[in-house]
Amino acid sequence: MRFKQDFFEQLDGFYSQVYPQGISNPHWLGWSDDAAKLIGLDKPNDDLLMQLSANAAAPGASYYAQVYSGHQFGGYTPRLGDGRSIILGEAAGPNGAWDVALKGGGPTPYSRQGDGRAVMRSAVREFLVSEALAALSVPTSRALAVIGSDLPVWRESQETAAITVRLAKSHIRFGHFEYFCYSEKGAPDKLTQLLNFTITQHFPHLTADAAGYKQWFVEVVQATAKMIAHWQAIGFAHGVMNTDNMSILGDTFDFGPFAFLDSFKEDFICNHSDHEGRYAFGQQPGVGLWNLKRLAQALTPIIPSDDLIAALNTYQPCLVSQYVSLMRAKLGLSVDNDLDNSAQEKQDLALISQFTVMLENNQLDYSNSLRKMGLIDISSQHNPLRDDMLNVSEFDSWYQVYQARVGSVADVAVWQRQRNLHNPKYILRNYLAQEAIIDIEEKGDNSKLLKLQQLLTRPYDEQPEMDDFAKRPPDWGQGLIMSCSS
C-alpha cells in the first residue's frame, strides 16, 4: 500500500496517535478482490496479513484515532471518537485515495474503558454487508478483509477477536463538526480548518469560501438524502443512525445491528437497544433530516443560517425524487416526458406506497416479491404475485392501476430482464450471516462465509445452484434483531 497522510499532517489536534495491538494467530477469514483493486492491491499474502493484523508495522502508516462527538439516540455525547478503529492513512489507488482502518485494533484514548476489540461475528457481518451494499450500488464504505484470531474477548460471553480492514473515502462524520463546535476546544477557526480540509480533499470542485461553504452543505444534504433513498428502496435498515455514524460524503458506514427486510414491515426494528423504535426502517428518512439539522446547528458559526435552512429544504424533494426513480426501475414505470414531472412523481409515489402497504398487509417478503416482477406478463391479469396474496381483491385493484401506468410493453422478455437488473434475487439476510458465523465459531470453517460473499457480489444473477439462499428465512431466522456488538 502507498499511503498519503493528509489528515494526519494537516489536522493536528483532530486525532490522537495510537498504535494498534496485534491479535494472536491471525488468519484470513475473508478477502475482497474488488475492494483490493480500489487501493491497487492484488492478492493477500503473509506480509500483508501481519501488517493488517497489527503484528507488523505497515510501511508509511501513521496510525491514529480520530476524535468527534455525536447525538446518540437523540442525546448529545460531547466526546466519542474512534474507540476501536485505528486509521493507517489514505492508501492511493487508481481512482483516488481511501482511508485504511483496522476496526478492532485495540484500545484508543476514546475507548471509554472498552477493550478496543471487535468480535468475530461483528467483523464478519461488516465484511459481508460492505460487499453486499457495494454490489447493490448503494453508497458505502468497503471492507478489504476480515482477519480472525484466537484472542479471547468478553462480551455477553467469551468470544474471539477479529479485525475488519475498512476502506472509506473519508472517515469525517457529522460528529466531527459537532465536536469542534461544542467542545472546550471549539472555535470558529477549528471548524473552518476542518471544513476547508473537507472541501479540498473531498469536494475539490468547490471553493473554500462563503459561496463554496453554501454549496458544500447543499451537496452534503443531498448526498445523505440519496443514500437513505437507496436504503429504503433496497429494504435496508441501518439500525443505529447516530450523528457520529453519518458520513459527510453520504456513504453507509459504521455497521452494527443492521438488517435487510425479510417480510416488509414499515416499523421493523433491527437493534435490540432501540426500545422506542427511533431507528426503525420507516423512520430512517426523518432521522436523516434530524441528523442534518444537528450538523447545521454545528455549522452556524461559519455558515449563515439562511443558507443552512435553504439547503435543508432540498432534503425531502431530493430523497423522494431519488426513491421514486429507484422504485420506478424496480416496478418498470417509465417516465412520460409529456406530463408534469411533479404530478407524475406524486402519482407514482402513491402507487409505490400502495404496493408496500399491500406487501405488509399480506406479510410478504420484500425482495422476493419485487424479484417476481421479472416473471410478470403485464398484458395478463394473472401473475405470480397474485398467487401470494391473502387479500386478492386488494391486489386486483392495485394491479389494474399498475397495468394502466406501465402501459403496453413491446417485448415482454426484455421488460422482464430489465426488472431482474434492478431487483436482486439474493440479499444478505441475517440468518445467512448467522449460519456462516456459527460454522466459523463451532468448526473453524469459513467456507460458508466465502460462498456467501461470492453470492452477494452477483445479487442480480440467476445462480440456480444457490436457490436456497434466496428463500424466505426459516422461522428462527425471520426478522432477527441484533445488538450493537453484532
What's this model, at a glance?
With 486 residues, the chain is of the alpha+beta class. It has helices at residues 6-10, 33-38, 46-52, 120-135, 174-182, 188-202, 210-234, 284-299, 305-312, 315-331, 341-361, 366-371, 384-388, 392-406, 412-420, 430-443, 447-456, and strands at residues 3-4, 15-17, 27-31, 64-66, 70-72, 75-77, 85-93, 96-103, 118-119, 142-154, 158-168, 236-237, 259-260.
What does this structure look like?
By secondary structure, this protein is α+β, with helices and mostly antiparallel strands. The strands form four sheets. Strands 1, 3, 7, 8, 9, 10 and 11 form a seven-stranded antiparallel beta sheet that branches. A two-stranded antiparallel sheet has the order 2-4. Strands 5-6 form a two-stranded antiparallel ribbon. A hairpin with a 2-residue loop joins strand 7 and strand 8. The protein has helices spanning 6-10, 33-38, 46-52, 120-135, 174-182, 188-202, 210-234, 284-299, 305-312, 315-331, 341-361, 366-371, 384-388, 392-406, 412-420, 430-443, 447-456; strands spanning 3-4, 15-17, 27-31, 64-66, 70-72, 75-77, 85-93, 96-103, 118-119, 142-154, 158-168, 236-237, 259-260. Helix 7 (210-234) runs antiparallel to helix 8 (284-299), helix 8 (284-299) runs antiparallel to helix 9 and helix 11 runs antiparallel to helix 14. The protein contains 17 helices and 13 strands.
